[in-house]
Specification:
With 833 residues, the chain is mainly alpha-helical. 56% of the residues lie in helices and 3% in strands. It folds into four domains: 84 residues, no CATH class; 156 residues, no CATH class; 116 residues, no CATH class; 247 residues, Gamma-tubulin complex, C-terminal domain (Four Helix Bundle (Hemerythrin (Met), subunit A)). About 19% of the residues have low confidence. This is Gamma-tubulin complex component.
Length: 833
């Protein structure tokens, strides 16, 4: 008796003893199922317990099998289970025949008995009706799922199909039981059997003579099963680790073939019956003698790399050969899909999700083969009928195969796969069935991507272990631990787009997606809880634009919430008004009182100026001027910059990175002085260091002009000295005083131009636009536009050469003032001039 018969025979005896409604085939099918479709280990143990609890060594065997299931393949555990009970009670040939009949194998005409037995399977097995074989398989929840067909006599819903037995394999089964010490020793270490040995056992256990034509005949060679070499199968071109659950790909079996009747001597109907039997197995990747796959061409490129050609037996009738050639491309498509599934396993969440959808498609394909084999066993199937039934499947499978091959050849991954499948949908407008299938694939493949997108636009969080998402987080440390001026680049550089990971259907909304997550991230860092107004279930549906509405709703929610945080809770406009009041000299009385208080200190060399003195004078001035009512006056501070205005302008305009590390020049305190304004997060996003530096440039030029104006006003009182001079000498002083008046007019007109004609109109435009702003990015853009416009028109840009002329003019005015003051003091000491 063969090993498959022994396996099913032992199970049949146990089922008979326990009066269980299960069948050997249903148990084997569940133990050899893939990991995603298999019952949990605890349920598998329950199945074995239900049929073996009457045996004397029941407890010992159950404990051993439980341990094996934790570390080994379930099929290996089933083999050990059968081995233990086969030693307790040998299985006879008659019992084996009974089990074959009970499973519905072609041992007798007992299909009706099998169907009645299948109808009595308990609720732990989910029976799939044959009416749903050609439709999409449904998901069965929990541990109550075991895919079976309505007729339990077809163990062909997995890659290795059961076909009609032509001859019995009389090779005896030899099991060697391990002793208790061996068992303990094996449990104490992590065993790992040779994969080829496990593969041979699985093939022997589940094929039920499907590979009987490939086994060596012991009667010819005289070798016992123990002495047979361990080279049952040889690999073709796919790594062995990909074959553990699904991919068989026409294994080539070594050894002599079981003798068959000469095909040319058989009648046409017999040829067709044998050919149909082998064709159904060929469609699922099992090598046969009449349909032999050609050896893969290693140098093949393009679609041919994933194509399989077949050699058809030359003695077959020509009419049969012609019909078979029309069906065989389906086997090539199916096997190409399986190769790609195996090759892309574990290459990211998108590819894994796509492979899961393809596995469901594979399951439906197996159900079609099951239905066809059922028709064949009832002698109702012909090649012409099979071709008719499979024609729609061939068209759809060709589309899936060609799409996957193109993806694989172009080495597309993640968003590129979604982009290609989405574009493929548009090209299939004339093929509704294929289009619907691709729509289903892209919908399922996009699930992990859309899950990451949902987390980003709802919570501002990126969960992207495989770097598949379109937004990348460049943060490496916590914001509180960042350098002093990190906020300058926070908004632009913290989160950026990864262009190669943007699917085509999200390309138009990528900027909105980026900003939505940014807003939520800032809100959360402000200590506020992000609470969406409604739960959003984001899924990609190529037939609708629902995901667009979800993205828009999330964007508007985040934009309104952050604007409320900035404008209402943190009073951004109040801070901007304070900056304008102090750094743009809009608070006139404060400016004059501060210059009066600090004039003596600022005329010193910058190395002798005491910053603490300036801070004390600033605080005193703020409290005696009208600025005392400003709630943000304490955010204003004094700063002595280590560079002059020209250097600062050059560095700011060129965006130099090390512009603060310049060596100190020989400057006066007045040339280095500037106000600075410090704000907290999140207002620092708008009033960041670059923006404050631009305000300082405007302040330093205005402040310097104010100082020159004050010096020119001081020498006005020297006009009275001219009355004491003789007419000739007085005329020289009058010319000097006329020059002073012209200097005064030039400086005052320059101040008027900058403050009244440039700053005020631009500020008014900025305030009006801020009333209709919708998001923080617009706030940043409007604020930067205001500052850049002021700098440009105040001649404080690198492209403008007038600023240097203005500085020279101011210095000339100061030198003139010094000259007049020195001359006046000298004239006062010398009577008569």
């Amino acid at each position: 008796m063969s090993k498959p018969h022994a396996l099913r025979g032992v199970l049949a005896n146990l089922i008979s003893e326990s009066q269980s409604p299960l069948t050997p085939e249903s148990i084997i099918r569940e133990f050899r199922a893939t990991s995603g479709r298999r019952l949990p280990a605890c349920d598998l143990i329950k199945v074995l317990v239900s049929i073996s609890e009457k045996r004397p060594n029941f407890a010992e065997v159950t404990k051993e099998i439980s341990h094996i299931l934790q570390n080994k393949d379930p099929m290996y555990a089933l083999l050990v289970f059968v081995e233990r009970y086969s030693e307790c009670k040998p299985v006879s040939e008659s019992s084996s025949s009974t089990s074959l009949s009970a499973m519905g194998l072609p041992h007798g005409n007992k299909t009706s008995d099998v169907n009645s037995a299948a109808g009595s399977v308990p609720t732990t097995l989910a029976i799939a009706s044959t009416s749903t074989i050609l439709t999409t398989s449904q998901n069965v929840s929990g541990s109550t799922r075991l895919s079976l067909t309505q007729s339990q006599d077809f163990p062909t819903s997995t890659p290795v199909n059961c076909k009609k037995a032509t001859e019995s394999d009389t090779t005896p089964v030899v099991f060697v039981r391990r002793g208790p010490m061996d068992r303990n020793r094996g449990a104490g270490k992590d065993e790992r059997n040779d994969l080829s040995v496990i593969k041979e056992r699985v093939l022997n256990a589940v094929s039920d003579q499907s590979l009987s034509g490939y086994r060596s005949v012991t009667n010819k060679t005289g070798n016992s099963p123990k002495s047979m070499p361990n080279d049952l199968v040889t690999l073709t071109d796919v790594p062995d680790e990909y074959r553990t659950h699904l991919l068989w790909e026409y294994y080539k079996v070594d050894g002599d073939k079981v003798p068959r009747a000469e095909i040319a001597a058989m009648p046409l109907l017999s040829q067709e019956s044998m050919l149909l039997d082998e064709l159904l197995h060929c469609l699922t990747g099992i090598r046969e003698s009449l349909l032999v796959p050609q050896k893969p061409i290693i140098s093949a490129v393009g679609l041919a790399k994933y194509d399989t050609d077949f050699d058809i037996h030359t003695h077959l009738d020509r009419s049969l050969t012609h019909q078979v050639r029309e069906i065989l491309p389906l086997a090539s498509y199916f096997m190409g899909v399986q190769k790609i599934i195996a090759a892309t396993d574990g290459l990211g969440q998108v590819m894994n999700s796509l492979n899961e959808a393809l596995q469901e498609l594979t399951h439906d394909f197996y159900l079609i083969i099951v239905q066809a084999e059922q028709e064949l066993r009832h002698n109702r199937l012909t090649l012409q009928k099979l071709l008719y039934y499979l024609q729609p499947t061939m068209w759809v499978m060709h589309e899936v195969w060609s799409s996957l091959v193109i993806i694989q050849l172009s080495d597309s991954r993640d968003a590129e796969v979604l982009t290609y499948l989405h574009e493929r949908i548009k090209r299939l407008e004339g093929n509704k069935d294929a289009q619907q299938l691709i729509i289903g694939l892209v919908r399922k493949a996009a699930k992990p991507y859309m899950r990451m997108l949902q987390m980003w636009i709802q919570k501002g969080v990126i969960v992207d272990r495989h770097r598949e998402f379109l937004v990348v987080d460049n943060e490496v440390i916590h914001r509180d631990e960042l350098p002093e001026h990190y906020s300058d680049d926070y908004w632009e550089r913290r989160y950026t787009l990864r262009d190669e990971q943007i699917p085509s259907f999200l390309a138009k909304y990528s900027d909105k997606i980026l900003r939505t997550g940014k807003y939520l991230n800032v809100i959360r860092q402000c200590g506020k809880r992000v609470m969406p107004t409604q739960e959003m279930n984001l899924e990609f549906d190529p037939t609708s634009e629902r995901h667009v509405s979800v993205i828009n709703d999330a964007y508007y929610f985040a934009a309104r919430m952050l604007l409320d945080v900035l404008l209402t809770e943190n009073d951004l406009m109040g801070h901007l008004q304070s900056v304008k009041r102090y750094l743009l000299l809009n608070q006139g009385d404060f400016t004059m009182q501060f210059m009066d208080a600090c004039e003596d200190e600022l005329t010193k060399n910058v190395d002798h100026v005491l910053p603490m003195t300036l801070e004390n004078l600033l605080g005193l001035t703020l409290r005696i001027s009208s600025a005392r009512n400003d709630p943000y006056k304490d955010d204003l501070h004094c700063e002595l910059l280590p560079y002059d205005l020209v250097t600062q302008m050059s560095k700011i305009m060129k965006k130099g990175e090390n512009w603060q590390a310049q060596p100190r020049l020989d400057l006066s305190g007045l040339e280095c002085f500037a106000f600075t304004y410090e704000v907290k997060w999140p207002c620092s996003l708008v009033l960041n260091h670059i923006s404050i530096s631009k305000y300082q440039m405007l302040f330093r030029q205005l402040f310097y002009c104010k100082h020159v104006e004050r010096q020119l006003c001081k020498i006005w009182k020297e006009n009275s000295i001219a009355r004491q001079f003789e007419p000739q000498a007085a005329s020289l002083y009058r010319a000097a005083f006329t020059l002073r008046q012209r200097m005064m007019n030039a400086i005052q007109n320059l101040e008027y131009y900058m403050m009244i004609e440039i700053i005020e109109p631009n500020w008014h435009i900025f305030i009006e636009k801020m009333k209709t702003v919708e998001n923080v990015d617009n706030v940043l853009r409007l604020h930067q536009d205001f500052l850049d416009s002021c700098l440009k028109n105040c001649m404080l840009t690198e492209s403008s050469h007038l600023n240097r002329s203005i500085f020279k003019l101011c210095k000339i005015c100061l030198k003139y003032c010094e000259f007049i003051q020195v001359s006046s003091s000298y004239s006062a000491r010398v009577p008569g001039g």
